[in-house]
Amino acid sequence: MNLTPLLNALQAGTDQPRDLLLAFVEGVANGSVDHETATSWLKAVHQHGCTRSDTVLLTEAMRASGAILTWPEGPPVVDKHSTGGVGDKMSLMLAPALAACGLRVPMLAGRGLGHTGGTIDKLEAIPGFNCQLTPEAMMEAVANVGCCIAVQNDAIAPTDGVLYALRDVTDTIDSLPLITASIVSKKAAEGLDALVLDVKVGEAAFMKTLDDARALAVSMVEAATGLGIKTEAQITDMNAPIGTHVGNALEVIESIEVMQGRGSADTRELVVLQGTALLTMTMEIRAEEAEQRMRTVLNNGAALDVFQAMCVQQGVEPSVAAALVADPQSVLGQAPHQTTILATETGHVGSFQTMAMAQFARSHGAGRFHLDDAIDPLVGFVLHRTMGSPVTKNDPVLTFHHTRPLDDDETSTLVQFVSVGSPSTTPPTRLVERIQSSLTKP
Ligand code: URA
């Protein structure tokens, strides 16, 4: 394929010839475009960016390169994407909670990326949980229990599979149009009516500045809206770990606690925020009513019932699923070592070294450094105090769960992960900014 017209347009900042761009995307998926040719196009997009209309066209073409779920008449179909955080276990609660509110949620999720955990790794901490669902199995699961959570696979947006792998080895990952098309094409292939995008910003996010987070949010909202999906991006703070638990099995435990009507307020508020946006975009209800419905299903056991049914639908033995939702640790187990850090002074929790904590847990097996690394599901942190909470000298502030014993250096590193100071004048909040598409109900 002669890419010159595409490369020239990219260099000139104009729209690429439509038919050629569509043929290129199809050729990447079916293998008729070789990797060298695809790489020269990726490098040109990475260097020059591309027009907004080309970003939408690229997203649409990538969606069309594989299966697109089509739904029978019924409740709205919705999903969420997060750009990745530390302790970000929202999907585990959001999918069942929205299903309990009557929506359909065919969620595609990924494994951990860099220092951030992945929904699939968390679910695979549950014995028997099968995330490898075909598009048909996803549709059957949604018909039976209202939601499913499946790993991204070659049937959906296969062009992205090829391009993503090439981007990884050609230093072309950090490109706004490429990230946008990659994320939105997969979500759009689920046949969605509405999508919420959680764009993380802060020390432990991929986007460190509000300007960068906003640019990504706007680009993704435009692309998803361009494909007819009502979309809201929520830019949320990622400076402190979310909730109380970080680590694969530990985050399943916290999620179940929240669906038992207890658990972390920080986590619950973020799930409610995301669910409220999706309910108001798709149902004829006001935000207050949507928020109330989310709180009700988290508190009255309805979301937990759907979670249990989803586990069984996705391969977990019914008796194991029942034990899991009653007493998660009895099923998931516990790491052989726990090291607890005590407050060195009296005051208020001022900050967490969130990125360093995530990397520390990753080095103990909570995440991967190579594609085929095995995850240790039991490794992670439990926070006994969250940002801003008062603490007395010698109170436990966090416990690290680990399988390999710590050396002396690691023990002194752990102590530095939390700082105690004077109370902050502004209470910590997660939501920084919302960006809504014109298709969103006012
Ligand atoms: N996640 C994706 O799926 N694609 C990207 O490009 C970045 C994050």
CATH architecture of the largest domain: 3-Layer(aba) Sandwich
Structural class based on helices, strands and sheet pairing: alpha/beta
Overall tally of domains: 3
CATH topology of the largest domain: Pyrimidine Nucleoside Phosphorylase, Chain A, domain 2
Compute the CA-based radius of gyration.
22 Å
Q: Total number of helical segments?
A: 18
Low-confidence stretches: none
DSSP E strands, number: 13
In a nutshell, what does this entry contain?
The protein has 442 residues and is of the alpha/beta class.
Q: What does it look like?
A:
The chain is α/β, with parallel strands linked by helices. The protein has 3 domains: 4-50, no CATH class; 78-325 and 430-436, Pyrimidine Nucleoside Phosphorylase, Chain A, domain 2, CATH 3.40.1030; 335-421, Alpha-Beta Complex (Aldehyde Oxidoreductase, domain 3). Helices cover 46% and strands 15% of the residues. The strands form 4 sheets. Strands 1-4-5-13 form a 4-stranded mixed β-sheet, with helices on both faces. A 4-stranded antiparallel β-sheet has the order 6-9-11-7, with helices on both faces. Strand 4 (194-201), helix 10 (210-226) and strand 5 form a beta-alpha-beta unit. It is globular and about 65 Å long. It starts with a helix and ends in a 6-residue tail after the last strand. The longest helix is centred in the middle third of the chain and has 18 residues, at 265-282. It has 18 helices and 13 strands. Uracil (URA) binds at residues 164, 178-179, 182-183.
Summarize the SSE layout with pairings.
Layout: H1 4-12, H2 18-30, H3 35-48, H4 52-64, E1 78-82, H5 90-100, E2 105-109, H6 119-123, H7 135-145, E3 147-151, H8 158-169, H9 176-188, E4 194-201, H10 210-226, E5 230-237, E6 245-246, H11 248-259, H12 265-282, H13 287-299, H14 302-313, H15 318-326, H16 328-332, E7 337-342, E8 347-352, H17 354-363, E9 380-383, E10 390-391, E11 396-402, H18 408-415, E12 418-421, E13 431-436
Parallel strand pairs: 1-4, 2-3, 4-5
Antiparallel strand pairs: 5-13, 6-9, 7-11, 8-10, 8-12, 9-11
Helix pairs in contact: 1-3, 2-4, 2-8, 4-9, 4-10, 5-11, 5-12, 5-14, 9-10, 12-13, 14-15
Uracil binds next to helix 9.
